[in-house]
């Protein structure tokens, strides 16, 4: 099937459309229903009647946006009417929810009269926290937005006007920086003079460009004062009429620094690009076909052409989804009365700054694994970059508070944590650990210091104040890679080949001389094997924690720290633990990486260590020893070992959290089973620490939960070591390294 057929099938698959309403509170019992509706619902109604702002407290208003359109200017389809525009408006709702966790009602109004449309939206004001106007033709869209901004007390934003303006504005900030040009010196030419073009020109002036340097062209040519005097252009176009000779687009582009295309495809030739100033900036944003093709524009010049389009199959896509979800997120969260110019500028500046930062692995993978680095082919962030939420929404909220548009003041540090929680429980849990790490950073040795991911992770770890990283490896190679990656930091490096580390070799020989290691062999291991080097570094107290494993199999990476550092004084066995996060639940799974066939002593020890780990995440542990039996329903040696481990833990005075077993997995996690059938259990709530009877079942269990249960996984986290050691998995991303560095620092703080 072609794209059209696929899209039709996508939309008609049951249930039809792309959005639905779901409940956010329990509705299982008669009492639930009496709270949700009559008679309980009268209580919040009364509170809101006394104070209308309480609607933000007791209803979904504060997270609800109305996407309003009359279908008069839909995408590239034109005036198709309200009903036919509904798939687009539903799609807008999908983007709001996917990128910023904002709920949407799409409102398609069969009304062409701007006055009546304004009145309709005004009447809906009590329902929404904000209004996103969409696909309304010019010039009526200007009038509608201006009227609504003046007459209602919630944010109103016409994305077709301002979205492209803001995102291309961010691109302009970086393009000018790369080209070495000042904003107020730029000669800018617009092809197109509709709502988007006029709003974009206005916004560029807000960023620092000069209005007198903007030349705007419509289908009749350059908009001049002479044309304005003749009445050839409407009042909105007149704003950018220039006192210059009349001419066409080719005349306007000669000598220009910037071309901004918001018109139709194919209008610009290579000769027109060649006529521009040195190192031109070309934003050809007509969709689906730009004013000039990407390859054509790049090939037109011998110098640098910084090119952006509206297409996803070329670098530098000007995509409105980088703006409106996050703008509304920040505006809603401070209960803003409007989205003003200061907030729009804050958005553009936040996006521009983000493009200059190191790019997460997940984003790189989404775009084909080719390197993504600040430069002519990367001047705005990618739409799938999760960091956009954390950069833009706080910037919007801060600008709203500073400009007087906010009804409430918020703590921006706490706000970022709230935003993390919106993206999933795993981010919320990691924020707890990372905050602890930042409160008292420790030194973390990164054994595979020449690995590009380790270097990028070290940069982020240091930049965020999580730890003081030490990269172990050849210093010249590490610094060369850091420079090639464009990372602006001075890494601390330990180079075993050039430093004086004889004492490390002596110590390794001392520890392993009765295991067949000679002094010469110890020296060679220290010089050539960064895992042994890092292990001795931590054992000697020159670093607080060790991380390794990116380029090794787990057992070979774990062996050196076990031989050199070993387990804690009161611990005989290390174990690997995964933290699995679901929408409203957190579970620690052990052991999934180390002990193949544990007996009851190992199971008990693993449970104790996992309970301690849970508390580092501010989770009070409730542990279940898992089996295929419930409390003796099957009696054999396999089930007895879990039962005996549970009894050992219950009798251990050092264990101050509830433990029980053996029990089946569903008994451990389903409250109705636990309380209904096994009310005698030590667990009064479902378990959040699940200890599997062997490595095979633990590894299978966590992977099934992750893949089929939709859980996010953090780990493996190594517990039971005498000093903090964490072994990464081959293929882990930079964010995984940063997260485990945070765990390692918190481990070191406990030490």
Automatic annotation (TrEMBL):
PANTHER family: NADP-DEPENDENT MALIC ENZYME (PTHR43237). Residues 16-149 form the Malic enzyme N-terminal domain. This is NADP-dependent malic enzyme. GO terms for molecular function: acyltransferase activity; malic enzyme activity; metal ion binding; NAD binding; oxidoreductase activity, acting on the CH-OH group of donors, NAD or NADP as acceptor. Residues 398-425 form a coiled coil. Residues 161-401 form the Malic enzyme NAD-binding domain. It holds the Pfam family Malic_M. Gene3D superfamilies: 3.40.50.10950, Isocitrate/Isopropylmalate dehydrogenase-like, Malic enzyme, N-terminal domain, NAD(P)-binding Rossmann-like Domain. InterPro entries: Aminoacid_DH-like_N_sf (IPR046346), Malate_Decarboxylase (IPR051674), Malic_N_dom (IPR012301), Malic_N_dom_sf (IPR037062), Malic_NAD-bd (IPR012302), Malic_NAD-bd_bact_type (IPR045213), ME_PTA (IPR012188), NAD(P)-bd_dom_sf (IPR036291). One of its GO terms (biological process) is malate metabolic process. Keywords: Coiled coil, Metal-binding, Multifunctional enzyme, Oxidoreductase. Its cofactor is Mg(2+); Mn(2+). It comes from the Archaea. In the C-terminal section; belongs to the phosphate acetyltransferase and butyryltransferase family. CDD domains: NAD_bind_2_malic_enz.
């Amino acid at each position: 099937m072609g794209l059209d057929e696929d899209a039709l099938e996508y939309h008609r698959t049951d249930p039809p459309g792309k959005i639905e309403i779901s409940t956010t509170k329990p509705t299982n019992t008669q009492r639930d229903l009496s709270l949700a509706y009559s008679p309980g619902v009268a209580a919040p109604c009364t509170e809101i009647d006394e104070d209308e702002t309480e609607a933000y407290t007791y209803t979904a208003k504060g997270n609800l946006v109305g996407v309003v359109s009359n279908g008069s200017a839909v995408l590239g389809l034109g005036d198709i009417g309200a009903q036919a525009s509904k798939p687009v408006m539903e799609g807008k709702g999908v983007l709001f929810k996917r990128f910023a966790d904002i709920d949407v009602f799409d409102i398609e109004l069969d009304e062409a009269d701007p006055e009546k449309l304004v009145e309709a939206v005004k009447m809906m004001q009590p329902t929404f926290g904000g209004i996103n106007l969409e696909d309304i033709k010019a010039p009526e869209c200007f009038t509608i937005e201006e009227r609504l901004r003046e007459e209602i007390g919630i944010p109103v934003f016409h994305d077709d006007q301002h979205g492209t303006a803001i995102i291309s504005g961010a691109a302009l900030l970086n393009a000018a920086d790369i080209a070495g040009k000042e904003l107020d010196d730029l000669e800018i030419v617009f092809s197109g003079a509709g709502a988007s073009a006029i709003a974009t020109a206005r916004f560029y002036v807000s960023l620092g460009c000069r209005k007198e340097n903007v030349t705007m062209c419509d289908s009749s040519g350059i908009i001049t004062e002479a044309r304005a005097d003749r009445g050839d252009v409407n009042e909105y176009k007149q704003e950018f009429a220039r006192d210059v000779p009349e001419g066409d687009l080719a005349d306007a582009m000669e000598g220009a620094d910037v071309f901004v295309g918001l018109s139709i495809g194919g209008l610009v030739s290579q000769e027109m690009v060649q006529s521009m100033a040195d190192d031109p900036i070309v934003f050809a944003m007509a969709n689906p076909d730009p004013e000039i093709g990407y390859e054509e524009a790049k090939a037109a010049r011998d110098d640098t052409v910084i090119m952006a389009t509206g297409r996803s199959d070329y670098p530098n896509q000007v995509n409105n989804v980088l703006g409106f979800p996050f703008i509304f997120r920040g505006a809603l969260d401070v209960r803003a009365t409007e989205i003003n110019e200061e907030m729009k500028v804050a958005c553009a500046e936040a996006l521009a700054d983000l493009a200059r930062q190191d790019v997460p692995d997940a984003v790189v993978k989404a775009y084909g694994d080719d390197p993504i680095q600040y430069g002519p082919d990367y001047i705005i962030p990618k739409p799938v970059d999760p960091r956009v939420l954390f950069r833009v929404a706080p910037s919007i909220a801060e600008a709203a508070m500073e400009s007087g548009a906010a009804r409430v003041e918020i703590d921006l540090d706490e706000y970022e944590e709230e935003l993390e929680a919106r993206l999933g429980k795993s981010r919320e849990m990691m924020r707890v650990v990372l905050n602890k790490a930042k409160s008292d950073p420790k030194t973390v040795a990164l054994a595979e210091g020449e690995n590009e991911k380790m270097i990028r992770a070290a940069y982020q770890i240091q930049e965020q104040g999580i730890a003081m990283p030490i990269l172990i490896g050849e210093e010249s190679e590490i610094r060369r890679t850091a420079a090639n990656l464009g990372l602006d930091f001075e890494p601390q490096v330990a180079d075993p080949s050039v430093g004086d580390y004889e004492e490390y070799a002596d110590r390794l020989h001392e520890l392993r001389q009765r295991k067949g290691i000679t002094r010469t062999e110890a020296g060679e291991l220290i010089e050539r094997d960064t895992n042994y080097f890092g292990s001795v570094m931590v054992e000697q107290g020159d670093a607080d924690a060790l991380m390794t494993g990116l380029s090794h199999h787990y057992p070979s990476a774990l062996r050196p720290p076990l031989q050199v550092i070993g387990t804690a004084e009161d611990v005989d066995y290390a174990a690997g633990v995964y933290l699995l996060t679901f929408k409203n639940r957190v579970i620690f799974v052990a052991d999934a990486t180390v002990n193949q066939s544990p007996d009851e002593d190992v199971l008990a020890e693993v449970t104790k260590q996992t309970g301690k780990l849970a508390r580092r995440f501010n989770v009070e542990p409730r542990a279940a020893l898992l089996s295929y039996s419930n409390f003796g329903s099957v009696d054999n040696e396999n089930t007895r070992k879990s039962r005996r481990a549970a009894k050992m833990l219950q009798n251990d005075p050092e264990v101050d959290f509830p433990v029980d077993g053996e029990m089946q997995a569903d008994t451990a996690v389903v409250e109705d089973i636990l309380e209904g059938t096994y009310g005698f259990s030590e667990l009064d709530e479902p378990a959040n620490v699940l200890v599997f009877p062997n490595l095979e079942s633990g590894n299978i269990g966590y992977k099934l939960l992750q893949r089929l249960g939709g859980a996010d996984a953090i780990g493996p986290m190594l517990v039971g070591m005498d000093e903090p050691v964490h072994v990464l998995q081959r293929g882990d991303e930079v964010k995984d390294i940063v997260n485990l560095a945070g765990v390692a620092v918190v481990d070191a703080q406990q030490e």
